[in-house]
Amino acid sequence: MKAPGAEQWVPHDGGMRKVRESLPDCRGCELWENAEHVVPGEGPVRARMMLIGETPGDQEDKEGHVFVGPAGHLLDKALVEAGIDRTQVYLTNAVKHFRYERQGKRRIHKTPSAGQITACHPWLTRELEIVKPALVVVMGSVAAKALLGASFRVTQQRGQRLELPGRQTAVATVHPSSVLRSNDFRRDFEQFVSDLRTAVDLLG
């Protein structure tokens, strides 16, 4: 049976507090069944910059907070290098529950399906409506599919000025987890920081 999507659980009044209160009740796709926590966005509700990642990882699922695992630590370092104060940006993911498969005792990240990305999209839309960021940083292919369409290729269009359907200015870049897995960490980390600096320049 096809999951209904998140729309019926997303509140359209009450602001971000209501969003955070409503998220744990969402049954828009099946990912909630095996997750420990739903992981809402965090940051100032009127942040000028919003960073959108892909999906929570193992540590985020355990703690219920966004970007607190290894990719989050790398993101913190990159934000400092780019001159961005993490406390002044809104951080969230395109999908709010952790998707994984077990290998022994380990939980290994699995990329959300197109259906799961679509099902969760109303939450992301509502966050964008509330925060109204002047600039959005789209990190990774899942976030890019959610916001820029299935044909968008991060590797080809990263670091460029883009416009989202809601008319927000955006910059696409890789997800910090891909930098962690890189065979040339220094090169890819510097390129990631460069994309973030482009976002700063566009924000003015």
From TrEMBL:
Bilayer-spanning residue ranges: none
Keyword Nucleus (UniProt): no
InterPro entries documented for this protein: UDG_Type-4/5, Ura-DNA_glyco_family4, Uracil-DNA_glycosylase-like, Uracil-DNA_glycosylase-like_sf
GO biological process, one term: DNA repair
Record's keyword terms, sorted: 4Fe-4S, DNA damage, DNA repair, Hydrolase, Iron, Iron-sulfur, Metal-binding
Record domain Uracil-DNA glycosylase-like: where: 40-197
GO MF annotations in UniProt: 4 iron, 4 sulfur cluster binding; deaminated base DNA N-glycosylase activity; metal ion binding
CDD domains, per the entry: UDG-F4_TTUDGA_SPO1dp_like
Pfam families, sorted: UDG (PF03167)
Keyword Cell membrane assigned: no
Family: Belongs to the uracil-DNA glycosylase (UDG) superfamily. Type 4 (UDGa) family.
Official protein name in the record: Type-4 uracil-DNA glycosylase
